[in-house]
Write a structure and sequence with these properties.
By secondary structure, this protein is α+β, with helices and mostly antiparallel strands. The protein contains three helices and four strands, in the order ββββααα. It has helices at about 50-60, 70-75, 85-95; strands spanning about 5-10, 15-20, 25, 35. The protein has a two-stranded antiparallel ribbon. A two-stranded antiparallel sheet has the order 3-4. Strand 3 (about 25) and strand 4 form a beta hairpin.
Length: about 110
């Protein structure tokens, strides 16, 4: 198994605060890998890093054309249920003529 490779270094002045390693690949539409770092076949659990990808159909379908920046941020991230986040979600649901009964949560 190929080890992860350094991908990002977070600097604070001249001090390296953190370093993030990982695996990445660039592939063609038919799946042919054209460039890879680390192990391109590594099975990962992307968790929250995939949220913005999960929001793409909303935008590509045109359904998200009139979204505010706050709504777009909500669609692209995980949340801790802070008061302002709950307020924005409730407001968004109300704009759609829905309430929190319309929400479903999958197994965690």
């Amino acid at each position: 198994m190929t080890r992860p490779v350094p991908m990002v270094e977070i600097l604070r002045g001249d001090f390296m605060e953190s370093r993030h390693e990982g695996h990445a690949a660039i592939a063609t539409a038919d799946g042919r890998i054209v460039e890879a770092w680390g192990d391109p076949g590594m099975v990962i659990l992307p968790r929250s890093s995939a949220k913005m990808l999960q929001a793409l159909p909303l935008l590509e379908s045109g359904a998200g054309t009139d979204l505010s920046t706050e709504q777009l941020a909500l669609a692209c991230a995980s949340h801790s249920g802070e008061r302002h986040q709950v307020f924005l979600v409730c407001q968004w649901l109300a704009d759609l003529g829905l309430d929190d009964n319309a929400l479903l949560c999958g197994p965690q």
